[in-house]
Specification:
heterodimer; A: alpha/beta; 6-stranded mixed beta sheet; 10 helices; globular; B: alpha/beta; 5-stranded mixed beta sheet; 16 helices; 67% helix
Chain lengths: 281, 433
C-alpha cells in the first residue's frame, strides 16, 4: 500500500504540489489525471523518492521510498526516453541491471524476460537510435522492470506513441497488474484513465481535486446526462440524472423518433465541472 | 556498492568510444597536435641531419675541403666555430656533437701512402648512442672520399706518389727494409701510372685504376678519437618533450568537455532520474561519473606517453609523471563536475566549458610553450590550471624537478580539483533534491 500524506513542493514562488494526500491499495492501477503542468510529475517524483517533499510524507508499505531496500521495490518509467541511444538495447538493460546488483544468472534471466515482455527480443542487439518512437517507449518500460519492482510509476508513458504501440502498452499494464504489481499512472488522456485505472485522482495547479473510481467521480462530479431527441414534434433536449428511465418515459409519448442522442458525463466533464476548463487546455 | 560505480564508469567509456568525434578529439587530435608542432619545432634535427659544431684548428686547404664536404653532406647541419664554443654548444645541448680538426689534419689527409690516417676529435653525449653511431658512420663515408679522390684522378695520384717518395726518403723513423721496399715500389708504380695516363686520349684525368676498393686496403679513411661530453640537463631533450604535455592537455580538455556534456545529457534525457531511483547513493552516481572521466584521462595520457617514449624519444621520471597525471586528473575531474553542475543544457555546457578551457589553455601554455611566453603572460598564466598541469608534466619530463619542486603544481592542481569537485557535487545534489 502507498500512503501519501499532505505532500507539498515549491519551486521558488511556484507551488507545484499543494498538500496532496492519497492512499493506493496494493495491486491497483491508480491514475493521476490532469493537464500539463498540473503537478503530476512532481507528485510521482516525490512518491518514488526522486525528490523530497517540502512538507508531508510518502510511505510504501510503511517504508520511506528513499530507503535502499525500498528502492529495490520501485520501478520508474520516466516521461522522457531515459535510455542511451548510442548503445544497444542489451547494453542499456545490462547497465541498468548492474545498478541493482543483480547476479549474472538473474540478470540474464530478467533481461530476457523484460525484452520478451515488451516484444523486443528480436531487436535486442540493435542500437536504440535505430528504434521507432514506440519501440523506444517499450524499451523504456523494459528497463524499469529488470529488478522485478513491486511499485511501478509510469509518468505519461504513451506520450508521442502511435496507436499500435499504445495498445501494446495498455496490454503490458494489465499484465503487470495481473502479476500483482501496484501501478501509478499519470496521464492527461481521460480515455487512458477510464480504460486502465481502478481509481483516479484528478489534479490541477498542484491540488488534488477529486479522488475515486471512474464511476464514483462521474457520479459525484459529472453532472447530468444530456439527451437530444428529434421526432415529429420537433427537436428537444434535456439534462437528466437518470437518463435511461427519463428517456424511456419520454419515448412512450412519441410515435416516431428520427434521431436520438445520449451524452453521458465522462472524466472530461468531471474535470470541466471541477475546474471550469477543458482537460487539454 | 563498487559494482554500480564500475558499471557507471564502463557505460561512460562505452559511450565515449561510440562517439567518433569524441574519440578523435580525445585521442587522435592531441597526438596530431603534439606530432605536428613537435616536428615543426624539431627543424634542423632528425631527418634534416645531425646538428654538429665544427672547429678547424688546422685551417689548411685539405682541412677546409673536409669542412666543405661536411657542409655539403645531407647527414649534417654544420655550425663552424672555434674549439671552445663548439664544446660549449654540445655541453649545453644546442648541438648533438662537435668535430675538431686538429693541426696536421690536412697533411695526413693528403698522404695516402705515408704518415698516419688523418685524426679528428669527436665529442658527443654518451647517452646518445644512436646518434654517435650514425655520426661515426657518416664521417667514415666522407673519409673514404679522400681515397676516391686520390685513386680516381691519375694526376692527383702522381702528385701523391711524388709527395710520398720524397717523404719516405727524408724519413728517419721508417725502418730500412720498408724504406728500401717502398723506394723500389713507388717509383715503379709512378712510372706505370704515367704510362697509363699517356695512353688516355688527351691525358684524361680519370684512369679507372683501382686499389683494393673492396675493403682489403688496410688504410683507415679517418682516425676518429671520441670524447664524451656531459650535457647539461636544463632543457628539453627534443621538441616533443614540449609538445607532448601540450597534447596531453588537449586530450584532458577533450575528456572534460565530453564528460561534462554527458553528465548534462543524463539530466536532459532523464537517465539521471533512472540512476537516482536505483539503490545507489547520489555520491556513488557522481563518483561513477568522476571515475569514468578520470579513467578516460588516464587512458589517453598513457597512450600519448607510450607513443612519446617509444616513437618520439621523450624521456621522463615515471613516478613524477604518475603524480602529475593523478593531480591533473583530480583537477580536471573537479572542473568537469563544476561546469556540469552550473549548466542546464548540452549546448550551454559545451559552450561554457569550451570557452573556459580554451582561454585557460591559451594563457596556460597549451598553445604557446610557457617558456616562450612574455613575462607578463607568464604572470597571468598562474590563474590557469592548464599552466600547473603542464608545469607538473614538464617537471617530470625535462625540467628535472625535485619532489619538493613538484609539490607546488601538484598541490595547486589537487586543491583546484577538490574545491571544484565539492562545489559541483553539492550543486548537483541540491538541484536534484
Amino acid at each position: 500500500m502507498i500512503e501519501v500524506r499532505g505532500i507539498s513542493k515549491h519551486y521558488g514562488d511556484l507551488k507545484a504540489v499543494d498538500n496532496l494526500s492519497i492512499t493506493i491499495e496494493k495491486g491497483h492501477i491508480f491514475g493521476l489525471l490532469g493537464p500539463n503542468g498540473a503537478g503530476k510529475s512532481t507528485t510521482i517524483s516525490m512518491m518514488c523518492g526522486l525528490i523530497s517533499p517540502d512538507q508531508g510524507a510518502v510511505q510504501l508499505n510503511g517504508e520511506q521510498p528513499t530507503d535502499k531496500a525500498t528502492k529495490h521495490k520501485i520501478g520508474l518509467i520516466p516521461q522522457s526516453i531515459a535510455l542511451y541511444e548510442e548503445l544497444t538495447a542489451l547494453d542499456n538493460l545490462s547497465f541498468f541491471a548492474d545498478l541493482y546488483g543483480l547476479s549474472s544468472s538473474l540478470k540474464a534471466e530478467r533481461m530476457e524476460w523484460s525484452l520478451k515482455f515488451v516484444g523486443l527480443q528480436d531487436r535486442a542487439k540493435d542500437t536504440v537510435s535505430e528504434y521507432s518512437g514506440g519501440m523506444k517507449r517499450r524499451l523504456n518500460l523494459a528497463a524499469s522492470l529488470l529488478h522485478d519492482p513491486e511499485y511501478i510509476f509510469m509518468d505519461e508513458p504513451t506520450a508521442g506513441v502511435d496507436p499500435q504501440s499504445r495498445n501494446k502498452l495498455f496490454e503490458s499494464v494489465f499484465e503487470l497488474k495481473d502479476l500483482g504489481k501496484t501501478i501509478i499512472y499519470t496521464t492527461h488522456y481521460m480515455e487512458e484513465a477510464e480504460k486502465l485505472c481502478d481509481r483516479v485522482g484528478i489534479v490541477d495547479n498542484g491540488r488534488l481535486l477529486a479522488l475515486g473510481t471512474v464511476d464514483e467521480l462521474i457520479e459525484q462530479h459529472g453532472g447530468h446526462s444530456s439527451v437530444n431527441i428529434s421526432s415529429e414534434q420537433g427537436e428537444e433536449s434535456f439534462m437528466t440524472a437518470n437518463p435511461v428511465n427519463d428517456l424511456m418515459a419520454r419515448l412512450r409519448d412519441l410515435n416516431t423518433v428520427e434521431n436520438l442522442s445520449l451524452q453521458r458525463p465522462n472524466l472530461e466533464t468531471v474535470f470541466l465541472n471541477l475546474t471550469g476548463k477543458q482537460l487539454r487546455d | 556498492m563498487m559494482k554500480a560505480v564500475i558499471a557507471l564508469m564502463k557505460k561512460d567509456l562505452k559511450l565515449l568510444f561510440k562517439d567518433k568525434m569524441a574519440v578523435f578529439f580525445t585521442f587522435v587530435f592531441p597526438l596530431l597536435f603534439a606530432f605536428f608542432f613537435g616536428s615543426i619545432f624539431s627543424s634542423g634535427g632528425g631527418s634534416q641531419g645531425l646538428k654538429i659544431a665544427v672547429a678547424d684548428l688546422d685551417n689548411t686547404e685539405k682541412s677546409q675541403a673536409f669542412v666543405k664536404q661536411l657542409n655539403e653532406a645531407n647527414e649534417f647541419v654544420v655550425t663552424e666555430t672555434d674549439e671552445a664554443n663548439a664544446k660549449e654548444l654540445v655541453r649545453t645541448g644546442k648541438r648533438v656533437a662537435f668535430i675538431i680538426l686538429p693541426e696536421g689534419f690536412g697533411e695526413n689527409y693528403g698522404g695516402i701512402f705515408s704518415g698516419e690516417a688523418p685524426e679528428i676529435l669527436v665529442g658527443i653525449d654518451p647517452a646518445r648512442k644512436a646518434e654517435a653511431g650514425y655520426l661515426e658512420g657518416s664521417l667514415m663515408k666522407l673519409g673514404i672520399k679522400r681515397f676516391e679522390l686520390a685513386f680516381s684522378d691519375a694526376n692527383e695520384m702522381i702528385k701523391q706518389l711524388d709527395f710520398s717518395i720524397d717523404d719516405i726518403q727524408q724519413s728517419d723513423e721508417m725502418p730500412a727494409e720498408w724504406k728500401s721496399l717502398l723506394g723500389d715500389y713507388l717509383p715503379k708504380f709512378k712510372e706505370l701510372t704515367e704510362l697509363e695516363l699517356a695512353k688516355q686520349p688527351g691525358g684524361a684525368s680519370s684512369t679507372g685504376l683501382s686499389f683494393g676498393a673492396d675493403g682489403d686496403n688496410p688504410m683507415m679513411p679517418l682516425k676518429i678519437t671520441k670524447e664524451e661530453v656531459m650535457v647539461q640537463k636544463t632543457g628539453p631533450r627534443n621538441a616533443f618533450s614540449i609538445t607532448i604535455p601540450q597534447g596531453v592537455i588537449w586530450a584532458i580538455m577533450g575528456c572534460v568537455i565530453g564528460f561534462a556534456i554527458s553528465l548534462v545529457r543524463e539530466k536532459t534525457l532523464g537517465t539521471l532520474d533512472r540512476l537516482a531511483i536505483a539503490p545507489i547513493s547520489r555520491t556513488q552516481i557522481l563518483a561513477g561519473k568522476a571515475l569514468g572521466c578520470f579513467a578516460a584521462q588516464a587512458m589517453v595520457v598513457t597512450l600519448l606517453f607510450t607513443i612519446a617514449y617509444f616513437v618520439l624519444d621523450v624521456r621522463f621520471d615515471f613516478i613524477k609523471l604518475l603524480l602529475a597525471v593523478l593531480a591533473a586528473g583530480i583537477c580536471f575531474v573537479g572542473i568537469m563536475m563544476f561546469f556540469a553542475s552550473i549548466t542546464k543544457t548540452e549546448q550551454s555546457v559545451a559552450g561554457m566549458t569550451n570557452a573556459f578551457l580554451i582561454l585557460m589553455g591559451m594563457i596556460g601554455g597549451a598553445m604557446i610553450p610557457l617558456f616562450a611566453m612574455p613575462g607578463w603572460m607568464q604572470s597571468i598564466s598562474h590563474i590557469s590550471p592548464v599552466k600547473w598541469a603542464i608545469l607538473a608534466f614538464e617537471g617530470a619530463i625535462w625540467r628535472d624537478f625535485s619532489y619538493i619542486e613538484m609539490m607546488t603544481p601538484l598541490a595547486i592542481l589537487t586543491a583546484i580539483g577538490v574545491v571544484t569537485f565539492f562545489i559541483g557535487t553539492r550543486m548537483l545534489k541540491l538541484k536534484q533534491a
